[in-house]
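Much of the work behind modern protein science is quiet bookkeeping, done one molecule at a time. The fold becomes a row of whole numbers, each drawn from a learned catalogue of backbone shapes. The protein below has been through that process, and both of its lines are reproduced in full.
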Amino acid sequence: MKTEFDPPVFVVGSSRSGTTLLYSILQSSGEFALYQAETLLLEVCQAKYGNLKNRKTYERFINDWIKSKQFYRSGLDPNEFIWGAKDHHETYIEFMRYFMECIARKQGKKRWAEQTPGHIMNMKALSQAFPGAKFIHVIRDGRDVALSRRKLGWTGTRSLDSLKNLISAAKSWEIAIKTGQTYGKALGNNYLEIFYEDLINNLDIVLEKISVFMGIEMNRAMIENSTIGSLGKSNTAFHHETAGISAKSLGRWRDQLTDEEIFILHSAIGKTLALLGYGIDSSVIKPNNKCITWKTGFYLKLCPVILSIRRFLRNRTLLGRWTSSNIEIGLR
């Protein structure tokens, strides 16, 4: 007998914005199938492997998939999964549906949630494939995001210039924010924005918002008693910090960026920060005797174009096979 599943939930946002924490909080409710990994199917696999309708492409993909952390954490039997998946790989979205429904079915759940931050760029396609799906967009101060992404090397550029890395990380954040909000307008009541800072400082209010949005009950006791995902361990780029929900993760940019870097970040993404309600302290807007060099100013304008071209080349050309990221093969 075929299982009827409720519409899924997608947690999206710029990487390093707190999507993992929000996803762990959702899973602590017990309403969703437990899956503690990003699927990476649309943002990584689609670019890396190409069209799954091609037999050789699919064989290469599925052989890597069952050896990946993504599959290992599903708890599924690889032989059974491969047998069923042969009828569900017309597209990566179809494959995602089959994969997540297999997990939910095994756990006796009627609903699943997926958390790959980069899938914010695929919200339109996902909403069309899953009518009624809910999207939670996690937003965090772009200065903290850019700082964290630079530390991890997730900047969208291979430049060795520290300042260019910071700018690229900030502009990547801005692109994700604008894309998510644009798609979100068309989703109406199926779209919710959660600010990471509210998640840390006003947890009860956020849980009430999520409860109304999802039609489920969420409360602080569920969170405090849970060790799921980042609720049980730190997911920070700053290894000495405490695990889980901690105010220490807020405003690191104030102490760890130079006045010049702060000034340049405000030049790069200041308008978006202001529109989102993030204050810009006038005392750090323009450092004394500092200015943006012509090279930096040129890169500020050119960076979004470079990021768009790279995304196009990665997703629409064969170049993506060699330049895109990999799924996490062999990791547990």
Remarks:
- Residues 69 and 245 are 25 Å apart (CA to CA).
- The chain is about 50% helix and 5% strand.
- Residues 162-187 form the longest helix (26 residues).
